[in-house]
Automatic annotation (TrEMBL):
This is Coactosin-like protein. Its main location: cytoplasm. Binds to F-actin in a calcium-independent manner. Has no direct effect on actin depolymerization. Acts as a chaperone for ALOX5 (5LO), influencing both its stability and activity in leukotrienes synthesis. Residues 8-142 form the ADF-H domain. GO terms for molecular function: actin filament binding. Keywords: Actin-binding, Cytoplasm, Cytoskeleton. It comes from the Eukaryota. GO terms for cellular component: actin filament; cortical actin cytoskeleton; site of polarized growth. It comes from Mytilus galloprovincialis (Mediterranean mussel). One of its GO terms (biological process) is regulation of actin filament polymerization. It holds the Pfam family Cofilin_ADF. Interacts with 5-lipoxygenase (ALOX5/5LO) in a calcium-independent manner. Binds to F-actin with a stoichiometry of 1:2.
Length: 147
């Protein structure tokens, strides 16, 4: 059996654009709530979309795709006083119809993403979730924080 070398790690295409989008999500003075990265046909990770409408955002999480997202969650914490809080989440998504070889690559390629997206409160990797929305993400963040 001949050794053919290590598998090629995906490259983050246009790192400057991703950095700008990342800073925009983190900025309290913008409406941008998320950025979405996807794989191109050339196996590069590209900035696909940014925005503030979470309804449109979550429609991209289908069974046939691998995605990375950076999300800003603004919410109120109830108690004696209502406190406004913000959580930043780095999310990896692997759809149920993605081939095993491509599924495995996502885990290694996350390091490429983390070279730009460095500051976040929680990292999640979701597979085959149904009904993915902001409430589900917040629930997963809370579960991760209690572990």
């Amino acid at each position: 059996m001949e050794f053919t070398g290590f598998r090629k790690i995906a490259i983050l295409d246009d790192q400057e654009a991703v950095t700008i989008a990342y800073k925009d999500v983190r900025d309290d003075h913008t409406d941008t709530k998320w950025l979405l990265l996807k794989y191109s046909a050339e196996n590069k990770i590209v900035l696909h979309w940014t925005g503030s409408d979470c309804g449109k955002f979550f429609t991209k999480f289908t069974g046939k795709v691998r995605l990375f997202a950076f999300i800003r969650l603004d919410f109120e914490e109830k108690g004696p006083e209502t406190i406004k809080r913000t959580k930043f989440v780095l999310l990896s998504w692997i759809g149920q119809d993605v081939a095993n070889e491509k599924r495995q690559r996502v885990h290694g390629d996350r390091d490429c993403i983390k070279s730009v997206i460095k500051d976040y409160d929680c990292e999640l990797c979701l597979y085959e979730e149904t009904g993915i929305d902001e409430k589900l993400i917040l629930q997963k963040v809370e579960e991760a924080e209690t572990k």
